[in-house]
Design goal:
A five-stranded antiparallel β-sheet has the order 6-5-4-3-7, with helices on one face. A two-stranded antiparallel sheet has the order 1-2. The two termini are 24 Å apart. It has two helices and seven strands. By secondary structure, the protein is an alpha+beta fold. It has one domain.
Length: 118
């Protein structure tokens, strides 16, 4: 699966079969953020975190946001350059609207109440 192009919405499906949209504008926000530029090379990990998470956390800050976590052992930092990394791909989803808000790769799980675990 490829990232969404201008005007497009990619449909991701979570572990329970729920459809979650990723709009082009949000993808540009994710991949275009200088602090998270590496996400441009990790679209597949976003798809994996939503479709096969290790656990899902209800955000401690915003009750309508769910944080899908998937443990990872490496990440791409440039096209074709992969480095070891122990952490997570975290995809933040607006549960009310079924849309991806953002995604990133922290080295620790995010705080909140675990609502689903593999």
């Amino acid at each position: 699966m490829q990232p969404p192009g201008p005007g497009e919405v990619r449909e991701l499906v979570d572990q329970c079969g729920k459809k979650i949209g990723l709009k082009y504008e949000q993808w540009r926000h994710i991949a275009g953020d200088p602090a998270h530029r590496y996400m441009d090379f990790n679209f597949d990990t976003i798809v994996e975190a939503v479709s096969s998470p290790d656990f899902i956390v209800a955000s401690a800050k915003t009750s309508t946001r769910l944080l899908y976590h998937r443990a990872i052992t490496h990440k791409a930092i440039l096209d074709g350059v992969v480095v070891p990394f122990r952490g997570y791909t975290v995809v933040v989803v607006d549960a009310e609207h079924g849309l991806v808000i953002t995604a990133y790769m922290p080295d620790q799980r995010k705080k909140g109440r675990t609502i689903w675990q593999k």
